[in-house]
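Lecture 7, part 2: worked example. A protein chain together with Z5A.
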Amino acid sequence: KVKLSSSRGALIVLEGLDRSGKTSQSTKLLSYMEGLGCPAELWRFPDRNTNVGQMISSYLSNQTQLDDQTIHLLYSANRWEKRYLMEDKLKSGTTLVIDRYSYSGVAFSSAKGLDFEWCKAPEKGLLAPDVVLYLDIPPETLLYVPLQKAAERGGYGGERYERLDFQKKVEEKYQALRDPSWKIIDACLSMEEVQKQLREHVMDCITSCKNGKPLSQLWL
Ligand code: Z5A
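Predicted complex, written out as structure tokens:
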């Protein structure tokens, strides 16, 4: 276990399918916390600014090809290279709002067909979030995403099903990762309503961390 801290920031993770609103909502959360004078930073994974992150970015933009195992380990390494900075920030009282974390890593890679436990293994020992806020959206809602892409390059039908199919698999994997402590938010509600619910969970979480909730490690 990581050393106890009496007054620390909270590690808050937002997860959910593509386009469920993670980036919009985490940005709003940060402004809200800043408005309250609560020290906070917004992080996201992949963090494309590091050396490892640049390899991931190059893969995501199709400039390099990597097999599924290699990219999985790079995503994980990208979290490990931020692990100690993360701990320092939290211990100095800064709350971190993180847009995607290990759950994205496992859900996406295992949805591609990699073994679920194999995918979890390199994540073990990273800092465990104090709360996971899951933005719940039916995969079917995402149909408009390939519609736009397909308009640019044709082959619309096949791509749509392929993508929907994949998002459904990702959702199944998220469900397998879920534990009772996760906060499930209906992401089909308005932006404002989603934000309102998120703020309540976040403030509860920050309070419990300030009151001495210890940091712990993921999946150990
Ligand atoms: N990946 C991985 O495989 N392994 C890993 O370990 C990690 C990631 C960490 C990163 O993509 C890819 O890497 C991702 C997973 C994989 N792959 N995919 N596919 P990215 O960084 O490009 O993706 P993202 O930044 O996370 O974006 P996103 O998931 O596509 O979107 P989002 O952040 O959830 O949503 P948004 O940008 O806030 O909102 C999307 C739109 O919906 C936007 O126009 C909003 O205005 C609108 N929106 C949002 N909420 C609402 C509500 N409530 N009502 C109406 N409209 C809304």
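The chain has one domain: 11-210. The first strand starts at residue 11 and ends at 16. Keep this in mind for problem set question 3.
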